[in-house]
Backbone:
């Protein structure tokens, strides 16, 4: 081994190739996921002879999946932090049961009842997160216990019976649509306008972001790709809002969902809080040595999960208009599957909020499409299971390449 | 002449082009206690792994002869089957199984898969008697002290009809009484004709029991000493251990040392798992502005434990003592508080504790100081990009851009990213733990240049290193840590490798 002085040479920086192909390759996961969703949609549109995109069905599709998506937002953060939460389905059912008892049996107004239920969700999240964060008990076990506990408590609260119906104002959370002051004949004008506005807002935000990046001399995706991608998005938003507007308009729950999606995506990708959660899951020891209070952060992600599970429980209860002891059973599996299909890594540190949302939609569209096609619940599960496995295999293959 | 029990000739082993063993010869005679000494990284452990078949035949060059027969071990089971048994520093016992179960683990006294517990029990009793341990064979390992566990390992070796026993730093974690008992046992085994290879840093122990010494340095045998005749010359051994010439491998610097900035008083730390064991024993330490202070010591001396216990108490328990910055006592209980006081710690384990490997250079660079690149908790990607660009240029990090994931960087460049992260936290006191471990010579020089520059800017730099030439080449002052206490301090002018090594190997004797 020679020990001659080697004086540092200037960086032989490889020029960053910025061709569309290489950019596409680097972002294969994201584009791939969007494309998978589109292909699945088109496939079922054809197979169901156009039923999938009918305004009524599209509205149902959103209503059916709203609570899964709401929980997927929280679950993604839990998974990114390196944990799992198996209790969300049971928490969902339990909170729905408490809401029913408060509003139906004790005749509470829906506002305080909703607030109490969300708070209850937070407390449940804290109770579980406490053991995971501060006592280092594996989250799998803590939340497995939680799953049993809250399933049992839901039964106890409802005394084994279904409780309902809810006050009509509360039902609007799931079954209401944004009102249309213009009283459009065949199209809800307010809903359509809102859709157009959203498309415009997204476009403005994207253009500003791109301008900001080039101002700092950062790499941007190729111009053509930027324009193409965003035009597709805008067209999709407008098309969807038109379709929905031609039925009853945009559902209230869709607005709630969209707002939450935007907030969570922003927090996860742009704020210090989000950055720290990714660091926690990516390498807990390095995160701790970088001054991140890893225990407290884990605790918070579980509280957040609890609140979102409670919200999902309210949405679900309002949609069924009763709280049943069976409510929420198995939701946790759909939620977790959505996150993994959306590209989250079971070992933590990897995953995107929008990925989880798309993952939830992929599951939702498949459920819906297969049901319309008349595929039995037996083979639906087989197919869903295989899709989950395929998505994760694709990730692992991509990573090892 | 007696035929040697073991002969290793011309052993050579490389890892991805890095030479670990270049030319090692070792000859062990029957019934001999043969000591192997050398600095950290001299190749002792690699040699033993080659011998015991951890690195199978074909992955190394050279010839191994055991009882005159050439051996080509494919795995540990093959070396064990001829009677070569190695006891690693990290004991390989299952804590929640009993002594009997551990001794016969993988070698169960069974007939058609059904364990004969009675036979196991009686055999264990006999073995325990041989090693002089008075415990019931049903005792769980977890209830025994480290010294007794070491004896169990030897009993286990005896159960496999050992011919050559290899002990890697057997007394490193033992107190004096247990060490003596262990050495006594080795002498007893020698009387029974069992040869033994003893890897140790403690020259006083070696001089007590060893018949011969092989000194390794930089992956080669540099001396084979016979000490059956008279007393052992420690000087000679030490000189052989360190005796390399120091080339001009360090940047020139003129130290400009100012006032005392940071100070530790009576710092005591207990082991993270064993609350009764002190890892750091009432250490006092101070460092001046613009000074590079080196901490020398062998592996296990407590260097990293000292640094991490100081840095937000990320290691150990029941930590006591005071830390002062500019004469004022400071609170170092969390990492964030340390960062706020301007203390930074660059870990020795950059992959395990330094980087989030799945993330980019820019991402890792800002992790310890996110508020500086964000407004109202929203990260300004542009500012982050510029910060990362600046450091990439300053520290000459070789990568296509700052959005390269750190997992794809070489060791030297990864180290520079970790350094960037801590430089961005604007520290006054910078603790560098093995800053050049596992990186090539060129990158080392760059790291040394950065260290020199930091000191020139008036920062206090504390360098922990196992490489003595590095400490001698860079530091203004060197403190020697051994078994959790400082045993010597040298100024740059008076320090030599011999003096440092002597202070370590003689400190146990008193």
Residues:
């Amino acid at each position: 081994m020679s020990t001659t002085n080697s004086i540092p040479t200037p960086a032989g920086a490889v020029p960053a190739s910025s061709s569309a192909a290489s950019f596409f390759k680097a972002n294969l996961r994201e584009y791939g996921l969007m494309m998978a969703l589109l292909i699945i949609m088109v496939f079922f549109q054809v197979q169901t002879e156009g039923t999938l995109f009918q305004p009524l069905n599209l509205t149902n599709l959103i209503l059916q999946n709203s609570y899964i998506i709401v929980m997927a937002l929280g679950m993604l953060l839990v998974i990114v932090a390196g944990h799992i939460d198996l209790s969300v389905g049971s928490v969902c059912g339990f909170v729905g049961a408490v809401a029913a008892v408060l509003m139906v049996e004790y005749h509470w107004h829906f506002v305080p009842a909703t607030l109490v239920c969300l708070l209850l969700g937070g407390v449940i999240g804290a109770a579980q997160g406490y053991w995971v964060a501060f006592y280092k008990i594996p989250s799998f076990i803590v939340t497995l216990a939680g799953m049993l506990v809250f399933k049992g408590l839901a039964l106890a609260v409802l005394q084994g019976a279904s409780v309902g119906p809810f006050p009509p104002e509360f039902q609007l959370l799931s079954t209401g649509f944004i009102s249309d002051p213009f009283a459009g004949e065949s199209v809800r004008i307010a809903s359509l306008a809102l859709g157009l506005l959203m498309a415009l807002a997204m476009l403005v935000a994207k253009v500003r972001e791109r301008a900001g990046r080039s101002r700092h001399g950062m790499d941007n995706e190729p111009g053509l790709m930027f324009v193409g991608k965003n035009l597709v998005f805008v067209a999709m938003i407008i098309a969807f809002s038109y379709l929905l507007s031609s039925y009853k308009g945009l559902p209230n729950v869709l607005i709630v969902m969209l707002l939450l999606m935007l907030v969570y995506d922003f927090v996860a990708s742009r704020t210090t809080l989000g950055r720290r959660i990714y660091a926690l899951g990516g390498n807990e020891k390095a995160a701790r040595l970088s001054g991140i209070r890893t225990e407290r952060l884990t605790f918070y992600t579980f509280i957040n999960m609890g609140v979102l599970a409670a919200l999902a429980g309210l949405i679900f209860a309002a949609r069924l208009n009763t709280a049943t002891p069976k409510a929420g059973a198995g939701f946790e599996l759909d939620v977790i599957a959505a996150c993994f299909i959306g590209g989250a890594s079971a070992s933590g540190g990897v995953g995107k909020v929008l990925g989880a949302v798309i993952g939830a939609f992929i599951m939702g569209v498949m459920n819906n499409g297969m049901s319309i096609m008349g595929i039995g619940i037996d083979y639906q599960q087989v197919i869903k299971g295989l899709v989950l496995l395929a998505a994760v295999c694709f990730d692992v293959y991509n990573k090892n390449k | 002449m007696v035929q040697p029990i073991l002969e290793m000739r011309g052993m050579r082993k490389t890892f991805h082009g890095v030479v670990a063993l270049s030319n090692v010869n070792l000859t062990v005679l029957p019934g001999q206690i043969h000591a192997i000494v050398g600095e950290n990284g001299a190749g002792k452990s690699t040699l033993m792994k080659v011998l015991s078949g951890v690195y199978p035949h074909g992955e190394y060059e050279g010839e191994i002869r055991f009882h005159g027969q050439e051996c080509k071990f494919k795995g540990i089971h093959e070396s064990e089957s001829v009677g070569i048994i190695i006891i690693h520093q990290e004991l390989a016992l299952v804590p929640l199984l009993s002594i009997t179960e551990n001794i016969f683990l993988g070698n169960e006294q069974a007939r058609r898969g059904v364990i004969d517990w009675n036979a196991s029990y009686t055999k264990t009793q006999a073995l325990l008697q041989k090693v002089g341990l008075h415990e019931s064979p049903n005792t769980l390992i977890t209830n025994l002290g480290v010294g007794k566990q070491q004896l169990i390992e030897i009993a286990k070796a005896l159960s496999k009809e050992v011919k050559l026993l290899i002990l890697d730093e057997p007394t490193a974690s033992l107190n004096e009484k247990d060490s003596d008992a262990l050495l006594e046992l080795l002498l007893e085994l020698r009387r029974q004709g069992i040869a033994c290879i003893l890897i140790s840093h403690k020259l006083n122990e070696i001089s007590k029991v060893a018949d011969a010494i092989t000194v390794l340095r930089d992956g080669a045998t540099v001396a084979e000493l016979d000490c059956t005749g008279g007393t052992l010359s420690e000087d000679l051994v030490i000189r052989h251990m360190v005796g390399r010439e120091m080339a001009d491998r360090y940047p020139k610097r003129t130290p400009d040392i100012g006032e005392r900035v940071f100070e530790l008083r009576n710092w005591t730390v207990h082991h993270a798992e064993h609350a009764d064991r002190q890892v750091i024993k009432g250490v006092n330490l101070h460092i001046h502005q613009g000074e590079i202070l080196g901490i020398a010591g062998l592996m296990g001396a407590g260097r990293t434990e000292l640094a991490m216990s100081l840095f937000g108490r990320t290691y150990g328990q029941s930590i006591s003592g005071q830390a002062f910055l500019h004469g004022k006592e400071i609170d170092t209980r969390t990492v964030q508080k340390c960062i706020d006081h301007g203390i930074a710690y660059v870990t020795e384990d950059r992959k395990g504790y330094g980087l989030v490997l799945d993330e980019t250079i820019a991402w890792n660079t800002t992790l310890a100081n996110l508020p500086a690149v964000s407004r109202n908790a929203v990260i300004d990607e542009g500012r982050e990009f510029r910060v990362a660009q600046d450091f990439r240029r300053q520290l000459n990090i070789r990568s296509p851009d700052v959005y390269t994931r750190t997992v794809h960087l070489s060791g030297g460049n990864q180290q520079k990213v970790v350094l960037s992260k801590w430089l961005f936290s604007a520290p006054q006191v910078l603790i560098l733990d093995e800053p050049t471990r596992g990186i090539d010579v060129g990158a080392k020089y760059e790291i040394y240049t950065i260290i020199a520059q930091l000191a020139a800017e008036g920062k206090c730099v504390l360098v922990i290193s196992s490489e003595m030439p590095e400490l001698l080449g860079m530091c203004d002052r060197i403190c020697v840590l051994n078994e959790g206490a400082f045993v010597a301090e040298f100024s740059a002018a008076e320090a030599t490798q011999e003096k440092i090594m002597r202070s370590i190997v003689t400190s146990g004797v008193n």
